């Protein structure tokens, strides 16, 4: 335990393993005692943070990593984003653990880019270890982290499989030109998820959401880039080149439907529950989710709107001052083997960034070639767009306009 | 009171008072009487609707990941209450925090309650008001203010320590109010007699005062534990990346709350209610025993005086 | 030591009050300070705060969110009145007709609140779902068309409507209304009641003129302890509400935790606190500080 009273990594790992012994409890009481006695020292504690300059510029050069496998490490991800058996086991992670003799602590605690960032922001700013070795965030949030210097630079020599198999479309992106910080995990589409039984037919465009029959049974997303992106496409604007005025006009377009109750709510991942239950008949949603939801409700369908859908990528990255970067690299390398990526892909049904994964899947199960979510036809791929990378000022203005819309 | 109710028919004849003798018939008075009871009964039923749903759905095995529709009966979740990922550490953290914050808040609060109830000092009413304010402040204000303090002083680790600090903070007021009520009811003469006997403040406190206020302290501790284990708002603001059980539920609610949450919620409910019930029985027993003892004493006294 | 012997209260008070001072009162001051800062974001997404007596944080945000403020007070008020109407008869029955079962009944009243707040609210989500037993029954009774017309519900559904939010708030804070009412009703001397029945021909009149006034401290306590937390509540609105039911708590939460706009959020939070303080002060004046803290 460090002298200024904070829990060491050992404590946290022990805690995670459930080692709540009397000794641990007393030690915690000791911390609490220290807290009571040293309440006034908190301000002083502020300057006693552990290593690390706060960001401003991204970290320069690869980090020299201690190349020993740590006994455990932590991987933070979105829910239902990895192969799952019996609701809690993950075969791909099990294989990894067995091969490298380690224990992966897999957390599904990223519900939303903004709120996750809000949770760990203060620690990152102070240069603290956020107790996670990989986090998976969507491109625009990943770009923020890179700009703020909250990511560790990768040692490319440790991830040859990534070098070999990373999809060419995802190399050298503007958010990470030298591929120094980010390794794509999955890509996906934003489109319309709906229940054809309740809508009385198939939907094809964003405009279908405004059907008065669906009043009060439609939801949009709180992810600004997804909602405004789809609406902009409906209005004929290219989200890759939009301005604040375009954003405002998209908000104005949506506003009347908020006011008259057409739109029930703005949701994060929680559109899924309403859709499965039938509270909502059609909504903006994410492609792979529908496949999971079909276990709850087999009628559900997903479609990319005719005027265009959004494409995004979630990226693995190593947060600054992570404790086990070597394990993180090992996992990235392990995942980028086609067979492993195929294992995950078979389950999550998003778009795999690993070349060769689809071939591996086809070999095991040829019928999966018909799954348009895993093997999108070229027409779909041509119809999806990426949202523009916003500057901080634009980010603020876009968000302000959008918040006005959601804030009722 | 039952007597007053049944003598209703005998009272209030037209001879008394100025109200004209248009009393409703016995039937209607009975209806009115029962209506109140029925209403109270309905309210009690209403109170139990959510908990019934929660317990019911803890026996559900959902088809997919959302436990919103009844699918089929299963004891799976009860057999593996920690089956969902992350739930075990969340529950353990909640219990730890509840324990520690209860201990500290009870100690700090009891001391303060003794001071406030016993002694008349300058600034007493101001202190009373100061103690009351946290209880009457919206949680969001308390939580956000504390977060602002931590951010401004750049407390590095928003986590276990900050959650603990927050919980002790809001628990203290409840302890003070609860224990104060108990201390007020204490007979000072007992302590004065003890002082004559023991002559030592500390010993008096330990052997006389403390046991007498123990029920109040116990109630305060139970209240603290319950408040702490259930707290969401203040914790959400000050937990950083740590996850307590309520925070876990909040996070899971977007993506399908696992059945285990219902199980653990039901368990906490049963333990809490069971505890209160037990306490009730003990109180009843004690009251009966005291009544019997004093009745026995009275009988003996009467026998001694020869007026049995 | 002599000084201490003379004023034994102070050392007893010190630890507890110090804790409250540091972790409750000082943060309020800090929040006030923060609310007068201006925040700017630089090209690297870094936030910079400068203290410059920026009162526009208050004026801008209060005017921008005045409907959320108003809505919070309205919902809290309705919930408080509804809770009062539900809780008073219950407390009355337990206090006066409970007899031997008083404590058990009280336990039954408190028991449901031993479930976690969030789980309770999520349960309401299930109960009030669009095609649930409750919703279908109310719809069949045409009650939902009435509430639609009143604007309390929409499209004959219960979820994501003001009615759902207000009902949930009422439910969740009911215990805070029942307990103080019970305590003050229970304290009433039975003989006063019997005397009142002898005086007044009418039971109702006896109640209005004797019982109710004697229970007023409990009424005030219950009202305060229900209204104030309800105003700052945001969970019910988030889980059971829609964009039209957003309360000021939702705004404060998102500004603090998601957008990290601390000056604006602090200004809103402080304003809420100030308004609540006014209510508490009125209440304290009416009853005296001793009564206030002897709930």
What would you note in describing this structure?
The complex is a heterotrimer of chains A (408), B (308) and C (295). Chain A is an alpha/beta fold. In chain A, strands 1, 2, 3, 4, 5, 6, 7, 8, 9 and 10 form a ten-stranded mixed β-sheet that branches. Helices cover 40% and strands 13% of the residues of chain A. In chain A, β1 (72-76), α4 and β2 (103-107) form a beta-alpha-beta unit. In chain A, 48% of the residues are buried. Chain A is globular. Chain B has helices spanning 2-6, 26-57, 76-79, 87-118, 124-136, 139-152, 160-184, 188-198, 201-230, 233-238, 245-253, 259-305. In chain B, α4 crosses α11 (245-253) and α7 (160-184) packs across α9 (201-230). By secondary structure, chain C is mainly α. Chain C has one domain: MetI-like (MetI-like fold), CATH 1.10.3720.10. Chain C has helices at residues 2-6, 9-34, 56-64, 66-97, 102-110, 117-127, 133-140, 143-150, 162-172, 174-187, 190-199, 203-214, 216-232, 235-240, 248-258, 262-287, 289-293; strands at residues 37-41, 47-51. Chain C has a two-stranded antiparallel ribbon. Chains A and B meet through α2, α3, α5 and α11 of A and α4 and α7 of B.
């Amino acid at each position: 335990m460090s002298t200024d009273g904070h829990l060491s990594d050992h404590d946290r790992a022990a805690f995670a393993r459930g080692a709540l012994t009397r000794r641990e409890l007393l030690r915690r009481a000791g911390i609490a005692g220290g807290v009571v006695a040293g309440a006034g020292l908190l301000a002083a504690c502020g300057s006693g943070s552990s290593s690390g300059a706060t960001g401003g510029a991204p970290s320069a050069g690869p980090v020299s990593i201690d190349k020993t496998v740590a006994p455990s490490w932590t991987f933070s991800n979105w829910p239902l984003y990895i192969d799952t058996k019996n609701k809690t086991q993950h075969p791909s992670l099990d294989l990894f653990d067995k091969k490298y003799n380690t224990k992966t602590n897999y957390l599904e605690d990223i519900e939303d880019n903004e709120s996750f960032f809000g949770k760990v922001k203060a620690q990152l700013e102070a240069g603290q270890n956020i107790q996670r070795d990989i986090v998976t965030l969507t491109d625009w949030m990943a770009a923020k982290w890179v700009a703020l210097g909250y990511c560790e630079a990768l040692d490319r020599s440790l991830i040859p499989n990534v070098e070999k198999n990373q999809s060419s479309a995802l190399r050298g992106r503007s958010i990470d030109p030298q591929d120094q910080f980010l390794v794509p995990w999955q890509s996906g589409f934003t489109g319309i998820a709906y229940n054809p039984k309740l809508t009385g037919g198939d939907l094809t465009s964003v405009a279908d959401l405004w059907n008065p029959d669906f009043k009060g049974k439609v939801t949009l997303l709180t992810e600004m880039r997804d909602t405004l992106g789809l609406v902009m496409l409906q209005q004929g604007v290219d989200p890759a080149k939009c301005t604040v005025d375009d954003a405002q006009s998209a908000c104005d377009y949506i506003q009347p439907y908020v006011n008259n109750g057409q739109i029930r709510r703005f949701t994060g991942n929680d559109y899924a529950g309403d859709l499965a239950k039938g509270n909502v008949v059609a909504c903006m949603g994410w492609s792979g989710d529908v496949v999971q939801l079909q276990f709850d409700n087999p009628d559900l369908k997903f479609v990319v709107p005719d005027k265009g859908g959004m494409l995004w990528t979630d990226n693995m990255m190593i947060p600054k001052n992570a404790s086990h970067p070597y394990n993180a690299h090992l996992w990235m390398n392990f995942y980028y083997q086609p067979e492993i990526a195929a294992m995950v892909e078979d389950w999550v049904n998003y778009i795999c960034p690993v070349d060769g994964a689809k071939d591996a899947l086809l070999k095991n199960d040829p019928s999966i070639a018909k799954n348009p979510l895993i093997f999108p036809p070229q027409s779909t791929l041509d119809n999806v767009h990426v949202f523009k990378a916003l500057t901080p000022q634009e980010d603020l203005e876009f968000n302000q306009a959008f918040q006005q819309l959601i804030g009722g | 009171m039952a007597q007053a109710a049944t003598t209703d028919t005998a009272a209030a004849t037209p001879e008394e008072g100025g109200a004209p003798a248009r009393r409703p018939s016995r039937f209607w008075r009975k209806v009115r009487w029962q209506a109140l009871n029925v209403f109270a009964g309905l309210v009690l039923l209403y109170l139990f609707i959510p908990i019934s749903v929660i317990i019911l759905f803890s026996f559900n095995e959902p088809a997919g990941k959302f436990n919103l529709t009844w699918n089929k009966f299963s004891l799976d979740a009860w057999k593996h209450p920690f089956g969902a990922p992350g739930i075990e550490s969340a529950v353990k953290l909640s219990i730890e925090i509840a324990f520690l914050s209860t201990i500290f808040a009870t100690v700090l609060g009891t001391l303060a309650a003794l001071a406030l109830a016993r002694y008349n000092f300058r600034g007493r009413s101001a202190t009373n008001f100061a103690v009351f304010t946290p209880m009457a402040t919206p949680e969001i204000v308390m939580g956000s203010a504390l977060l602002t303090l931590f951010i401004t002083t750049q407390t590095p680790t928003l986590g276990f320590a900050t959650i603990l600090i927050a919980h002790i903070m809001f628990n203290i007021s409840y302890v003070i109010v609860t224990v104060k009520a108990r201390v007020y009811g204490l007979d000072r003469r007992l302590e004065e007699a003890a002082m004559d006997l023991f002559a030592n403040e500390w010993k008096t406190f330990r052997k006389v005062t403390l046991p007498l206020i123990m029920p109040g302290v116990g109630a305060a501790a139970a209240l603290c534990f319950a408040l702490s284990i259930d707290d969401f708002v203040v914790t959400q603001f000050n937990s950083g990346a740590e996850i307590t059980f309520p925070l876990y539920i909040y996070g899971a609610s977007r993506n399908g709350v696992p059945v285990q949450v219902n199980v653990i919620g039901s368990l906490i409910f049963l333990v809490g209610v069971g505890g209160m019930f037990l306490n009730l029985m003990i109180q009843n027993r004690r009251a009966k025993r005291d009544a019997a003892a004093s009745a026995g004493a009275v009988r003996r006294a009467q026998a001694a005086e020869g007026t049995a | 030591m002599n000084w201490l012997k003379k004023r034994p209260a102070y050392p007893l008070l010190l630890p507890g009050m110090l804790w409250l001072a540091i972790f409750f009162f000082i943060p309020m001051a800090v929040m006030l300070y923060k609310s007068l800062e201006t925040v700017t974001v630089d090209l690297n997404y870094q936030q910079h705060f400068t203290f410059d007596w920026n009162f526009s944080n208050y004026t801008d945000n209060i005017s921008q969110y005045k409907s959320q403020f108003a809505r919070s007070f309205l919902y809290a008020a309705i919930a408080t009145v509804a809770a009062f109407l539900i809780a008073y008869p219950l407390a009355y029955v337990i206090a006066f007709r409970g007899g031997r079962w008083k404590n058990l009944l009280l336990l039954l009243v408190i028991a449901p609140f031993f479930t976690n707040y969030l789980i309770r609210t999520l349960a309401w989500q299930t109960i009030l779902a669009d095609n649930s037993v409750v919703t279908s029954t109310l719809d069949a009774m045409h009650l939902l068309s009435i509430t639609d017309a009143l604007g309390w519900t929409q499209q004959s559904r219960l979820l994501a409507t003001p009615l759902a939010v207000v009902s949930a708030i009422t439910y969740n804070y009911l215990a805070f209304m029942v307990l103080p009412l019970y305590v003050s009703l229970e304290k009433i001397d039975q003989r006063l009641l019997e005397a009142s029945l002898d005086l007044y021909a009418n039971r109702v009149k006896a109640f209005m003129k004797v019982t109710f006034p004697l229970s007023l401290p409990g009424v005030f306590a219950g009202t305060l302890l229900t209204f104030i937390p309800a105003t700052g509540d945001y969970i019910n609105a988030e889980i059971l509400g829609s964009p039209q039911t957003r309360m000021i708590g939702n705004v404060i939460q998102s500004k603090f935790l998601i957008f990290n706009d601390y000056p604006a959020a602090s200004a809103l939070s402080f304003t809420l606190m100030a308004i609540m303080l006014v209510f508490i002060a009125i209440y304290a004046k009416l009853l005296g500080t001793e009564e206030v803290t002897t709930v």
